[in-house]
């Protein structure tokens, strides 16, 4: 019988390396045997969400994160020790994670989830549902630096929504790697609308920003404190497939 492809079968990041797994929500739901009971406090937090679809997608993101982290730490997924920093950023606790210098981050939108793990530096990931151009026009006016806004306006109209999605995912991935979240000013993360991998200096952290069409039309970006881009895998009906960036 078809069973959920064990993330333990994915490559284990060595020092300085990172790994990102991406899955469409519909894809995850189609796999028999995916999921397990989350720790009580985590489940309680999720069960307070009003919408059933929000609860389902967060549960899936955390189950996927715990499967990946359990494989890295050699423990049961539900036993992976997670705490929250003051800014809400989830972080690993315990000697195992400290020894591996392991960081992680996750993201969810209505269509997809992403989990990133990194050794030796911070990682931030983002996935976002596509939005129409008029919505991006408002977001870009408020959230893009004036020079970036001008470069974005110069993108041909038919490509502008996808470009804004890529820039927005990049900004969030950077702010999630540093832990600022949206308490940081997205305008101060300056990104050209090309989607090409680039280095971003944010305070003392030098982050490599990478994005790709692995989940298109859903947007995805990853910022990692490393010189090397992450290995990216996407869940397909046949198991994990490597995705180029
Ligand atoms: C973190 C934040 C950028 C997430 O953005 P989002 O697009 O809504 O959601 P994403 O799916 O990308 O990420 C959500 C996950 O990021 C993680 N996260 C939360 N705070 C984080 C932070 N400061 N840094 C990195 N990751 C964070 C969590 O795991 C969260 O999922 P969970 O709540 O299920 O545990 C944003 O919600 C935030 O900054 N929140 C803090 C409150 C705040 O400043 N609000 C102002 C809104 S204008």
TrEMBL record:
Keywords associated with the record: Transferase
Ranges where the 4'-phosphopantetheinyl transferase domain occurs: 122-202
Stretches that traverse the bilayer: none
GO molecular function annotations of the record: transferase activity
Coiled-coil stretches: none
Keyword Transferase annotated: yes
Domain of life: Bacteria
Family per similarity comment: Belongs to the P-Pant transferase superfamily. Gsp/Sfp/HetI/AcpT family.
Protein known as: 4'-phosphopantetheinyl transferase superfamily protein
Lineage, broadest ranks: Bacteria, Pseudomonadati, Pseudomonadota, Alphaproteobacteria, Hyphomicrobiales
